[in-house]
Amino acid sequence: MPEKKISLFTNGTRVSDKVKDELTEMLLESGHIVTTEYKGDSDLIICIGGDGAFLETIHKCDFPSCPTVGINTGHLGFFQEVRPQKLQDFLAAYEKGQYSIQELNTVKCTVTTESGEEFTHVGLNEIAIKGRHSYSVHLFISIGGRPIEKFSGDGILVATSAGSTAYNYSLGGSIVDPRLKLLQVTPIAPMNTSAYRSFTSSILLPSDLSIGIRPERSENRIFILNDGIETGYENVRNIEVSASDEVVNLIRFKNYDFWHKVKDKFLEKN
Ligand code: NAP
Q1: Taking CB atoms and a 6 Å cutoff, what residues make up the pocket around ligand 1?
Q2: Annotated catalytic, 245?
């Protein structure tokens, strides 16, 4: 195989750094160029750690278009594919091109402030919209431009299919096969009383519909979390959440099966 430029990232734990040293030696011996940064011209990104480390790498590299693969040194990972004991097999399969690419869709939100300024955030797992501290938040929600509900509760989360097994699942949202391109809107502790009426379950939307979120006038601070990265805004006029054009190209090898991972992570006893 001709030499490849490979960017390596780890979450900095002792185990991950040990795997990184071992892998670096193997890649150099095979004639590849190894770097610990990403400048847009790499052939492959390798991330060593858990799913959290994978998310961090994707954000650090600003949603790279080149293939990415995860070596799992964390808990059972959904993004992380390769076991550290199988580095030799991984390199052989990669060099022979014995893999497929799983395209993971992403979600974005655009925040417009009262002064007309716009800010965009992209998430691989999700975008969550919350209020200040532990106060409830009141949001007018529209779908495809049509008003649907006034939401009251802790917030609203919009998950991608890949993100459905993360925060979304903890909130009672559904697990979605990543081959489906859709957005899942999941309420975070919705209030459902005679005073407030909100959906209490997730809703699934086709990826060409956008969700409009307009905070009630009294909401003076709104927090956006894209994959757990929090940004606070004041005087928000509107938030538009929709599918993003960014795609993460994840390498998968022949034994990969999403539903097997789901079973292992959520149903098997340790
Ligand atoms: P973290 O709070 O340190 O870890 C969150 C956990 O979510 C980790 O165990 C991580 O797996 C797991 N995870 C991340 N993406 C996943 C996915 N697509 N499917 C299944 N599990 C996944 O935060 P972090 O490591 O920076 O990750 C940020 C993510 O945390 C957010 O995108 C959000 O989805 C999630 N989160 C979850 C909750 C909750 O479940 N109540 C609350 C806040 C945030 P690893 O152990 O392999 O890293």
Answers
A1: 50-52, 55, 74-75, 77-78, 125-126, 162-163, 165-167, 170, 227-228
A2: no
